[in-house]
Amino acid sequence: MSTGPGLFSDIGKKARDLLTKDYLSDHKFSVSTYSESGVALTTSTVKKGGYSSGDVAAQYIYRNTSTDVKVDTESNISTTLTVSNIVPSSKTIFTLKYPNYGSGKLEFQYFHPHASLAAAVGLNQAPPVDFSVTLGTPTFALGAEAGYETTSGKLTKYTAGVTVTKPDSCASVILGDKGDTIKASYIHYFDQLKKSAAVGEITRRFSTNENTFTVGGSYAVDSLTLVKMKLNNHGTLGAVLQHEVIRKSLVTISSEFDTKALDKTPRFGVSLALKP
C-alpha cells in the first residue's frame, strides 16, 4: 500500500502534522500504556474554564483487525473496527457511536500502485456520502474529494489538491471549501530521520480576503529530545517539548501564547505515553 500515491487526506499531511500534532492547548493531561499482547489503553483529562472532562480509550490489534473503543465522561461510547485486505490492497472501517447511532459510518479504502480511492457512507436513514480519488505516484499525486447529501441532493463539499514529494521535502496545494479557500504548504527536512525540519503554510480565503500565514519547525536537540515551534501572522505562538524518558516512552509538554495579548494566561498541555 505504501508504494502508491496514498489517500487524498495524505495531501499536505506532512506539513499539517508538523504544525498541529502534539500541540496540546486545552490543559490536557493524558497517559497511554501499551502491552505486548497488542492492547493499548489511553486516559485523558481536559480542563476548560472551571469544568473538567475526560475519556478512556482502548485499542486491540489482532492480525489484520484492530478494534478501538472510547468512552467519555458523558457516557458516550465510540467503537471503530478496522479490517485490512477483505479485498486485496483494501481497508474497511466501521464506526458506531452510542447513543448517537446516526453518526455511525462505514468506509472502504482501496490502494493501487498508481491510484487510491476512499468511499464513506453514513449509517442512518438519509446517509451522507463522501468519495475521494487520488492518482499518481509516491513522488507526484493529484486528487479530489466530494461530499453528497442524499436528503437535499446537493454537494456538501468538493476539494482538489496536488502534491510533490521528494526525499527531503514536500510541497502541496489544496483548493477547498467549494473553491473559497486555497492552502499551500512546504516542508523541508534537514536530516535522514526527518526529526529536524522547517515548514511554511499560507491560507487564502477569497470570500473575506483573509490570509493566514504560519511558519514552524522542529529540531532534534539530541536522540531523546525534540523541540517544535510555530507562529502565525495573528500572533499565536506555540511550542512543544518532547522527551523520551525511557525507551519508547515519551513525555510531551506543550504551550500556546497570544503574543498580542501577553496579559492572557497561556494554555498548556501535558501527555505521557508509556510503552513496554
UniProtKB/TrEMBL annotation:
<dbReference type="GO" id="GO:0015288">
    <property type="term" value="F:porin activity"/>
</dbReference>
<dbReference type="GO" id="GO:0005741">
    <property type="term" value="C:mitochondrial outer membrane"/>
</dbReference>
<keyword id="KW-0472">Membrane</keyword>
<keyword id="KW-1134">Transmembrane beta strand</keyword>
<dbReference type="Pfam" id="PF01459">
    <property type="entry name" value="Porin_3"/>
</dbReference>
<keyword id="KW-0406">Ion transport</keyword>
<protein>
    <recommendedName>
        <fullName>Voltage-dependent anion-selective channel protein</fullName>
    </recommendedName>
</protein>
<keyword id="KW-0812">Transmembrane</keyword>
<dbReference type="GO" id="GO:0008308">
    <property type="term" value="F:voltage-gated monoatomic anion channel activity"/>
</dbReference>
<comment type="function">
    <text>Forms a channel through the cell membrane that allows diffusion of small hydrophilic molecules. The channel adopts an open conformation at low or zero membrane potential and a closed conformation at potentials above 30-40 mV. The open state has a weak anion selectivity whereas the closed state is cation-selective.</text>
</comment>
<comment type="similarity">
    <text>Belongs to the eukaryotic mitochondrial porin (TC 1.B.8.1) family.</text>
</comment>
<dbReference type="InterPro" id="IPR023614">
    <property type="entry name" value="Porin_dom_sf"/>
</dbReference>
<keyword id="KW-0813">Transport</keyword>
<keyword id="KW-0626">Porin</keyword>
<dbReference type="InterPro" id="IPR027246">
    <property type="entry name" value="Porin_Euk/Tom40"/>
</dbReference>
<dbReference type="InterPro" id="IPR001925">
    <property type="entry name" value="Porin_Euk"/>
</dbReference>
<dbReference type="GO" id="GO:0046930">
    <property type="term" value="C:pore complex"/>
</dbReference>
